[in-house]
Amino acid sequence: MANTFAIITGASSGIGRELAHIAAISGYDLLVAADEPEIYDAATDFRKHGVRVDAIETDLSMIEGVDQLLIAAGGRQVDVLCANAGRGLGHAFLAQPLEEWRHVVDTNIVGTCYLLQCLLTDMVAARKGRVLVTGSIAGYIPGSFQAVYNGSKAFIDSFTDALRNELKEVSGVTITTLMPGPTETEFFRRAGMMDTKVGTQDKDDAATVARSGWDAMMKGQAHIVSGLQNKLQAAVAHVTPAAVLAEQHRKLAEPGTADQDH
What we know:
Shape: globular
Organism: Sphingobium subterraneum
Strand order of the largest sheet: 3-2-1-4-5-6-7
Helix content: 40-55%
Radius of gyration: 18 Å
Structural class: alpha/beta
Largest sheet: 7 strands, parallel
CATH class: Alpha Beta
CATH architecture: 3-Layer(aba) Sandwich
Pfam family, one: adh_short
GO molecular function, one term: oxidoreductase activity
Protein name: Short-subunit dehydrogenase
Keywords: Oxidoreductase
CATH superfamily: NAD(P)-binding Rossmann-like Domain
């Protein structure tokens, strides 16, 4: 059995699944979570790397769901937390049912904050632990036709910056924010965005994004924007008027703009 322990959320597919593979290859025992039964098939794959893997299907948009994850950890000291679970949602805000946009807020913000508060409390007490939180370059951009999602990632990007400062004198505990751009995952299908340009265009490889995030976390870096094109986009976003950014995002995310070449 490995001597180190990692919790990875949103690990049934995409970036989270790739992070779990990296952690397992690195010798970490795993507790992986997602809100779908596919997490158990993913866990079977992770066990091929020769580490102990426990899996739980739980809704991390709910306080009770996070509590179930914490109970499954069994009080074990967490060396690495990859808080990757997230929810996307496309189309116009006024057309989005309350339960759908609230699920985005509750997953991306409430559940993430609660999980971080619980596990970081123990990490700070032990003065040991590494945290990777999946934000997004979307947090820099007013997200026309993706307004709640982009707003939730703006919160995460800001929140982790603030939390990092609060804990700057706690040696041994680091918080890294992974900020990918559009990535080849189930995200856009689940968000109902396959009729948009961003939903159908070429995207970054999830394994590459996960590796960049993992390496940055292990180095204790504050942020990592994965990919040169995304780095450029993030830099430009800092000096571009919000109205211009919103219009640019509209061209990517407005329904009916799908790129028919892909």
